[in-house]
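Appendix C. Worked example: Guanine nucleotide-binding protein alpha subunit
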Amino acid sequence: GLLCSRHQHSTKPDPENAQATEIERRIERETIAEKHIQKLLLLGAGESGKSTIFKQIKLLFQMGFDHAELNSYTPVIHANVYQTIKLLIDGSKELALNQTDSSKYTLSPDNKEIGDKLSEIGGRLDYPQLTKELSEEIEKLWKDPAIQETLARSSELQLPDCTDYFMEHLKRLSDVDYIPTKEDVLYARVRTTGVVEIQFSYDQMLYEDENKNRMVETKELFEWVLKQQCFEVFLVPLLFWNYGVHSVFLVPLSTCEWFKDYQSVTSGKQEIEHAYEFVKKKFEELYYQCTAPDRVDRVFKIYRTTALDQKLVKKTFKLLDETLRRRNLVEAGKVLIESKEHKIPS
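Step 2, the predicted output written as C-alpha cells:
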C-alpha cells in the first residue's frame, strides 16, 4: 500500500509545473515563428509618403478601412482643403511683395474678400465642416489667375501632394452625405511623429521644417541609416515613393545644393528620366561612400514608384519580398550566385 501510494504521489500532475511547461512551449513556438517574420522599417523625411504606404499596406494586406474609419477621415480631408487654400493665399501675398511683377500674384478685386475669409478659416485650430457655399468660394478662388500663378511655383511652398486632387473634387467633398473613398483617405494628410507599427522631390521644402530642402533631409537621413551598426547586415531599399507626383512639376535640380552639378538636357519625359537617373546615381554614390568594402552581406536596391498608386505599391512589395526570399536562400546556402563575368547568356 505504501508503494502504491508513493507511485500515485509521484505521477500526480503538478498544475504549476504543467502551466510553466505550456508557457515555455508557447514562447518557443512564438520565437520560431518570429524568425520567419520579415520586418520593414520605413524611414523618411516629412511628406515622403510614409503614412500613405501604411494606408496602402492596410488596403492591400489587411481588411482595408471600415465605414467608421472612412468617416473619421472627413474632418481631416476638410482641414486639408482649408490648409491648402490658405497656403496658396499666403504664398500669393508673399510673391506679390517679393517679385518684380507683383500684379501676377495679386487676387482680383472680386476674390479679395473671399481670400480674406478663407485665410481666416485656414488659420483656425478648429475647422468648420466643408459646406456647399464654402466649397464654391474655394473653387472660385482656386481659379483666380493669381492663385494659379502661385501654384506654378508650388515647390517654393509647403503644399501637400493632395492639393490638386482635393481641389478637383470640392463638390463631392462638400456633399451632406459625403463618405471618403479609399483614394480620398490615401491623399489625406495627417502630420505624424514618432514610431507607428502595423502588422500584416527635389527643391521642395519640408512640411516640418520650411528652411530645409526635402532631398537634403532625405540624403542626411539615408546617410545616417547607412552608418548605423545595427543596419550593417540588412536589406537597404531606397524607395522613391513620390516619383509620380514630383515628375508632374519637375523643376531645376540645381536649386538643391547637393545637385548643383546637374545639367538639364531637354524637357518633358526625357528630362524626367534624365533627372531620375541623376538622382539615382547620387544616392548610389552615397551608399558606396558610407558602406565599408567588406560589407558585401548588405543588399542595396532602388525602387521607383508612387505611394498613391496601389498597383505599383503592390508590385514594389512583391519585388521586396522576392529580394528578401533570395537573400534568405543565399544565407542558408541553398543557391549559388553566379558572378556577372560567368553569367550564362539567355
